[in-house]
C-alpha cells in the first residue's frame, strides 16, 4: 500500500489534518477516510460532529470519533447509549435528540442524561424536542448538572411543568429556551423565570401553544432584562391587551410573535410600536386588528419584517406603511391578500413574501 501511495504515505497526521480542513463536502471526507487505515484514523480524530440514524451501530462506530463536539440522532436512544456516549466522547458541547416521531421514543430515564451532563463538562446546547418521556425530574437534574448550559429546547416535552422552570430560573447561563407545546406551563412558571437569575441572561423565549398562561404570567416578563425574541403564538384567549401592553416594557425586544392572539387589539400594537424601538420583526398573523396597527409602525426606525397573514389588511394601510417605514425590507402576506394589493406594492422597492 505504501508503494502505491508513494510520497503521500510520508504525510504525518498533523499534515493530513490540515488537508481535512479544506474538505467541506462530506463525500470528500468519506473518500479521504477510505484511502488507508492511517487516513481513516485521522479523519475520525478530526470529526467535529456526527448524526446517527441507526443507534444500534453506536457502540461499533462511535469510538472512531472521540473528539466530536456535536452529537445528533432523530431516533430512539437509550440511557445506556447516552452513558456510552459520555464515556467515549467527553468533548460534546451540543446534544441534538430532536425526535422525528414520538412513536420512536422508547423512554429516557434520568441516568443517561445525568451521565452525559457529568461526563461532558462543556455541554452547552441540548435539544430534546418531541421526547415525551422527558419529565421534570430529568429536566431539573440536567439543568443542575450542566453548568454551561446556554441553549435548551424542550419543545413538545409534554410532561415538563413549572417545576422545571423553577430550576431554569436559577440558571445564570441560559440564553435560549423553547417550551413550545409544553402545556403544563402556567403563570407561576413564568414568574420563576422573570424573578430568577436567568432574567439577566435569557435572550430567546418560545412559549407558543402554552395555552395555560394568561395576562398575569405574561406581565411577569417585563422584568426580563435582555429578552430579544419572544413568541406567544397560539397561546389562547387568556392573553389580552393587559398582557400585550406589559410586553411593551421589554425595550430590548427585536423579534415578537403574537400569532392568533384574538383578544389582543390595536391598543397593544400601537403601544408596541411606540415603546419597542428595537423591534425588527413582528408577526401579527391571524389577529383581529385594524389599519391603525399597521400604520402605527410607519415611523418605526428599525422594523425590517412585518408578518400579516390572514389579517384584515387594506391596500391603503400597507401603502402607508411601506412609503414611510424606511427600514422595512419585507412584508409577509397570505396569497389572497397579496392579490388584492399587488398593483400598488409593485411600485415600492420592497420584498413581499406570500404564505398560503
Largest sheet: 13 strands, parallel
Strand composition percent = 5-15%
Strands, count: 13
Share of residues in helices: 25-40%
How many helices in DSSP terms? 16
What string, H for helix and E for strand, traces the elements in order? HHHHEHEHEHEHEHEHEHEHEHEHEHEHE
Specify Rg, calculated over alpha carbons.
25 Å
Q: Give, in spatial order, the strands making up the sheet with the most strands.
A: 1-2-3-4-5-6-7-8-9-10-11-12-13
Give the uncertain stretches in residue-range form. none
N-to-C CA distance = 59 Å
Mean pLDDT: 91
> Which class do the helix and strand fractions yield?
alpha/beta
Query: What general outline do the C-alpha atoms trace?
Result: globular
Question: How are the secondary structure elements laid out?
Answer:
Layout: H1 2-5, H2 13-20, H3 26-33, H4 37-45, E1 49-51, H5 58-61, E2 70-72, H6 79-88, E3 94-96, H7 110-119, E4 125-127, H8 136-145, E5 151-153, H9 162-169, E6 176-178, H10 187-195, E7 204-206, H11 215-220, E8 229-231, H12 241-247, E9 255-257, H13 266-275, E10 281-283, H14 291-295, E11 305-307, H15 315-324, E12 330-333, H16 335-345, E13 351-354
Parallel strand pairs: 1-2, 2-3, 3-4, 4-5, 5-6, 6-7, 7-8, 8-9, 9-10, 10-11, 11-12, 12-13
Amino acid at each position: 500500500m505504501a508503494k502505491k501511495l508513494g510520497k503521500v504515505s510520508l504525510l504525518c497526521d498533523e499534515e493530513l489534518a490540515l488537508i481535512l480542513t479544506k474538505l467541506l463536502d462530506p463525500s470528500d471526507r468519506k473518500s479521504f477516510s477510505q484511502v488507508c487505515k492511517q487516513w481513516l484514523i485521522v479523519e475520525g480524530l478530526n470529526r467535529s460532529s456526527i448524526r446517527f440514524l441507526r443507534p444500534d451501530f453506536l457502540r461499533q462506530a462511535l469510538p472512531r470519533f472521540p473528539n466530536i463536539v456535536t452529537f445528533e440522532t432523530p431516533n430512539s436512544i437509550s440511557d445506556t447509549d447516552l452513558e456510552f456516549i459520555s464515556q467515549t466522547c467527553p468533548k460534546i458541547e451540543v446534544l441534538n435528540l430532536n425526535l422525528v416521531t414520538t412513536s420512536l421514543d422508547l423512554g429516557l430515564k434520568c441516568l443517561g442524561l445525568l451521565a452525559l451532563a457529568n461526563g461532558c463538562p462543556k455541554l452547552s446546547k441540548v435539544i430534546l424536542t418531541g421526547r415525551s418521556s422527558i419529565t421534570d425530574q430529568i429536566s431539573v437534574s440536567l439543568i443542575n448538572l450542566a453548568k454551561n448550559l446556554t441553549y435548551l429546547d424542550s419543545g413538545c416535552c409534554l410532561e415538563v411543568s413549572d417545576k422545571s422552570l423553577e430550576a431554569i430560573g436559577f440558571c445564570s447561563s441560559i440564553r435560549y429556551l423553547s417550551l413550545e407545546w409544553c402545556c403544563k406551563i402556567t403563570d407561576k412558571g413564568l414568574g420563576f423565570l422573570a424573578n430568577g437569575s436567568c432574567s439577566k441572561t435569557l435572550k430567546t423565549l418560545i412559549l407558543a401553544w402554552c395555552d395555560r398562561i394568561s395576562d398575569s404570567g405574561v406581565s411577569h416578563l417585563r422584568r426580563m432584562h435582555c429578552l430579544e425574541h419572544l413568541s406567544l403564538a397560539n397561546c389562547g384567549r387568556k392573553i389580552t391587551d393587559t398582557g400585550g401592553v406589559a410586553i411593551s416594557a421589554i425595550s430590548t425586544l427585536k423579534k415578537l410573535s403574537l400569532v392568533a392572539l384574538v383578544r389582543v387589539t390595536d391598543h397593544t400594537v400601537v403601544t408596541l410600536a411606540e415603546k419597542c424601538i428595537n423591534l425588527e420583526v413582528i408577526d401579527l398573523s391571524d389577529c383581529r386588528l385594524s389599519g391603525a396597527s399597521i400604520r402605527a409602525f410607519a415611523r418605526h426606525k428599525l422594523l425590517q419584517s412585518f408578518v400579516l397573514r390572514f389579517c384584515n389588511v387594506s391596500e391603503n394601510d400597507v401603502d402607508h406603511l411601506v412609503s414611510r417605514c424606511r427600514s422595512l425590507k419585507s412584508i409577509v402576506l397570505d396569497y389572497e391578500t397579496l392579490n388584492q394589493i399587488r398593483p400598488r406594492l409593485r411600485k415600492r422597492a420592497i420584498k413581499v413574501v406570500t404564505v398560503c
